[in-house]
Write a structure and sequence with these properties.
The protein is mainly α. The protein contains four helices and no strands. 79% of the residues lie in helices and 0% in strands.
């Protein structure tokens, strides 16, 4: 249980940090969220599916709730970075 809490917080902080840097460079607020969701789809669904003849529902059903919790943390970090950037821009920080 402790490992899942640490993994979730780690993914949240990493996604927030990466999203914050991408927001500063690209100057788009919600791009990191879309980027992380696209990476999750590619790595979690398409890559294991590969050349197998399995159906998509069979690939997804192999994952458990424990596999989805860090992913939710990463998406929350990306959303939090977008919200933070939006608040900073609204406060008058032009460099962000």
């Amino acid at each position: 249980m402790l490992q899942i809490i640490i993994a979730t917080m780690l993914f949240l902080v990493m996604a927030f940090g990466i999203g914050f840097v991408i927001n500063m460079l690209v100057k788009t607020t919600w791009f990191p969220t879309y980027f992380i969701i696209a990476i999750i789809i590619v790595l979690a669904v398409w890559a294991p599916w590969g050349g197998n003849d399995e159906k998509l529902i069979d690939v997804i059903s192999n994952y458990t709730v424990i596999d989805f919790i860090p992913v939710i943390g990463a998406i929350a970090g990306a959303l939090l970075s977008g919200t933070t950037m939006k608040a900073l821009r609204k406060s008058g920080f032009k460099m962000f």
